Amino acid sequence: MLAAERRDHLLGLLAREGKIVAKDVAAELGISEDSVRRDLRDLAAEGLCQRVYGGALPASPAVVDYDARQAVAPDGKRKVAAAAAGLVRPGGSVILDGGTTALAVARALPKDLGCTVITHSPTIATALIDHPRAELFLLGGRVFKHSAVTCGAAAVEAAQNISADLCLLGVTGVHPEAGLTTGDAEEAAMKRALAARAADTYILASREKIGTASPYRVLSWEKITGLITDTDPHDTVVERLRTLGVEVFVAN
């Protein structure tokens, strides 16, 4: 089989199965596992897969820069945001992560809602300036420009001194095997620090993130209260997540 044919075969496997097991592909095609791994390295370099131990998973499209992400699945993000905004109760407190879906949540909050919003995103804080009854706490630290959020040691330390009823957290990948992932190690650590300070943590993930993976794990499934997504409730990945005990809330 030619290299181009192997490439098409691997991409087809990712689309159909949601993963590639290198040893299985090698046996099926009668080639060495080293050949499969080389092909996967090439696909990963093009951003077409996320390599993991023993094979690969679909790569998340949500790891592009902040401006580009605003054009990815805007309708899905609005649906997820509307459902998430409904969880913020009058008089309650919420830790709101950064990113484009979290920004949609901020915009979906009623302007007359009295609540406390804690965020490490200057963009989120700015979006809520005209909400007169919302108390805003902005966590400082090094700005990670890719996601327009603060992270690093100073931001994690600041997060350890706050608490809230609710944490609404974004990720770039949601996969039954890889778990909840994102594209930067420090950002993943910051997300863990935020989630640890809330009574309930919900993951915000529009459908393009479901069944995909990024390099760095954020949280294990047992650490979250639920997943909010606009994915079809009968999607095979969603059904697998439910078998893992994940509470999935479908935003219409």
How is the main sheet built? 7 strands, parallel
Taken in chain order, the helices and strands follow as HEHHEEHHEHEHEEEHEEEHEEEHE
- Portion in beta strands: 15-25%
Low-confidence stretches: none
End-to-end separation in angstroms reads 44 Å
Question: Helix tally?
Answer: 10
Structural class: alpha/beta
Helix fraction bin: 25-40%
**In which order are the strands of the major sheet placed?**
6-5-4-9-12-14-15
Question: Using only CA atoms, what is the Rg?
Answer: 19 Å
Task: Label the overall shape.
Answer: elongated
Mean pLDDT, to the nearest integer, reads: 91
Instruction: Write down how many β-strands occur, each being a DSSP E stretch of 2 or more residues.
Output: 15
Care to describe what's here?
With 252 residues, the chain is α/β, with parallel strands linked by helices. 37% of the residues lie in helices and 25% in strands. A 7-stranded parallel β-sheet has the order 6-5-4-9-12-14-15, with helices on both faces. The chain has a 3-stranded antiparallel β-sheet with strand order 1-3-2. A 3-stranded antiparallel β-sheet has the order 10-11-13. Helix 5 (74-85) packs across helix 6. The model has no long low-confidence stretch (mean pLDDT 91).
